[in-house]
Design goal:
The complex is a heterodimer of chains A (161) and B (137). Chain A has 161 residues and is mainly α. Chain A is built from eight helices and no strands. Helix content of chain A is 66%, strand content 0%. Chain A is globular and about 50 Å long. The radius of gyration of chain B is 33 Å and the shape is rod-shaped. Chain B is mainly alpha-helical and 137 residues long. In chain B, α2 crosses α3 and α4 packs antiparallel against α5. Classes of the chains: A mainly alpha (161), B mainly alpha (137). At the A-B interface, α1, α2, α3, α6 and α8 of A face α1, α3, α4 and α5 of B.
Amino acid sequence: MGDIGAYERELRPLLGQAAGYARSLLRNRQDAEDAVQQAALRAWERIDQYQTSRPFKGWWFAILKNCCVDILRARNAPDTHPLDGVDPPAAREPDAFEWEGLERALQHLSPPHVEILRLKYYGGLSYAEIAETLDIPKGSVMSRLHLARKALARQLSEERP
Amino acid sequence: MTRVQPEELSALLDGELNPTRTREVEMQIAADPQLRGELQRLRESDARWRAAAATAAFEPAVRLRDASNRPRQFVAAATLLVTLTAVRMAAKLTDSLVLSFGVQAVVLVVLLAATIWLARTSERELSASQTSAESAS
């Protein structure tokens, strides 16, 4: 995939889900757009490292995940916080989305479970693609995802009135 | 027939089992109310997640051309620098004002043509990539 046209053809169909995944992590639409833009350029700069025998989406999402982490780190840097300790206005979206309830339930799950659920649902990744992104065997994806789903279902049923 | 493993219920939901194993798992689920209940709970959670994911997704504005055009922009800037230097040297070397203006006019025409060529090439690339992206979707 040496030319930008081929890269763009692979990338375009992923952008909607990529934006949703980044948005679920960053809780802000503008930051999510920035993360996707950064990942698009960073991946192009590293396109020589991509092996065509591996799932492109999984490889690209690993870069996107790192871009999101960079933005979260920058957001949490001491000099980005106002003196009163309140989150900056851009840090959270004002609208209540469908996923707010789910996000509350996710707070009770372990980080590996949350991570795999985000990749599966917001990113729409297959098991092979998740394995590529997280650098774990496909069998581990299957068992970890199932445990994560069970934990979440338990959490959601406890929240029901 | 191997008994259904718990994680295979998730894999069934995600369409990640091979056709043979899918049939085996479905047969065991049909005969086991406990497995059916478990699968139903997973389905409900799954539907909620999918709805949430659809709400969060949006089409971001992503530009890739800035990065791909960097070498071309560098060449254009270097060409501009070299030609401007040539103009100044030509003006110093010749005593003829008419000749000096003539050289400068030729250089400006060349620069204008190069600029138009660069702009048209970028437009062609962009429209080609948009067309291919639309046809892919």
